[in-house]
Amino acid sequence: MAMTRPGENPRGVALSTELDDPEAIPYFLWDDPMSNRELRQALTSASAPEKARLLAKILREARDTDVWKYTSPAEVARAWPTLTLHLGRRRAFWEFLLRAWAGQGRIDFEPAR
User: Fold this and answer.
1) CB under 8 A, 24+ apart: contacts of 9-13
2) What is the structure's pLDDT at 1?
3) Residue 9 has pLDDT above 80, yes or no
4) pLDDT of amino acid 22
5) CA distance 113 to 17
6) What is the rounded CA–CA span in Å between residue 88 and residue 98?
7) Which of 20, 15, 106, 23 is nearest to 70 (CA)?
8) Per residue in 54-75, is it b (16+ CB within 10 Å) or e — as a string?
9) pTM, 2 dp
């Protein structure tokens, strides 16, 4: 069995924490490798379902502080109804943050009931 190097996934794709490097493949896209450039392009031009899938993947897999390199709290709040089913155990964390920011008047957020 071939061994992988640190920062490389079993498919042989080098993952990176360099989220400002357009050609780097973000660590949280281990199962769906694409460069930062491709990810940012998809977030602006993909179909609504694909954009929701990618945004949910970022919220689910990336470190919370890294999420904001790709989106904003207001965008997450607007997309919340389409994201909730794709967040798994991270849903409660993000809902807590969005509620707190809404309580502070930073964003408009009404969670689905």
Assistant:
1) 9/33
2) 40
3) no
4) 96
5) 36
6) 16
7) 20
8) bbbbbbbbbeeeebeebeebee
9) 0.85
Q: Are the CB atoms for 57 and 50 separated by under 8 Å?
A: no
Q: What is the largest CA-CA distance in the chain?
A: 54
Which residue's entry shows tokens 């357009």? Answer: 22
Q: Is 7 left (phi over 0), alpha (psi -120 to 50) or beta?
A: left
Mean residue pLDDT of the chain comes to 90
Q: Residues 107, 101: contact at Cβ < 8 Å?
A: yes
CA 38/CA 2 separation, integer angstroms? 29
- Give domain limits for the chain: 15-103
End-to-end CA distance of the chain: 49
pLDDT score of 111: 82
Compute how many other C-beta atoms are within 10 angstroms of the C-beta atom of residue 102: 16
Q: At what angle do helices 73-83 and 91-103 cross, to 10 degrees?
A: 130
60 touches 88 (CB < 8 A): yes
